[in-house]
Structure to design on (133 residues):
């Protein structure tokens, strides 16, 4: 089974429903210094949705602080698991040059603006390495 990693900038995506994602996905949600993780993570009746989810709360603030943490995580992930497919959930097109660079160097990563873009992931193949959707 293909391994997929979803990296979420919670500052850009405030409402998040991960339930449409299949078992191949692991998610890391990056939480800003002045934010709290989604409330569902604290409720026992919905906690099972977060069994494949990690939260990274950054300790500092600044322009693009979460973006830099996501970029670092991408580098670390591809260093240890080059065959993984990564997705950045963000409306910030500033990620696109980095993702183009990663794809041009044989890694598979694209930016998505909604979880809905990931639902047909098992049906529709990803674009070529040199394209970011």
């Amino acid at each position: 089974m293909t391994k997929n990693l979803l990296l979420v900038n919670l500052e850009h995506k405030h409402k998040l429903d991960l339930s449409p994602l299949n078992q191949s996905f692991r998610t890391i949600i990056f939480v800003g210094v002045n934010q709290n993780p989604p409330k569902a993570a604290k409720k026992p009746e919905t906690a099972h949705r977060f069994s494949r989810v990690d939260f990274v709360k950054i300790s500092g603030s600044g322009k693009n602080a979460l973006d830099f943490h996501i970029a670092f995580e991408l580098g670390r992930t591809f260093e240890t698991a080059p065959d993984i497919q990564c997705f950045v959930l963000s409306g910030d097109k500033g990620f696109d040059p980095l993702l183009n660079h990663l794809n041009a160097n044989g890694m598979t990563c694209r930016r998505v603006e909604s979880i809905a873009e990931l639902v047909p992931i098992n049906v529709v193949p990803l674009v070529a390495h040199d394209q970011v959707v």
In short: The first strand starts at residue 4 and ends at 9.
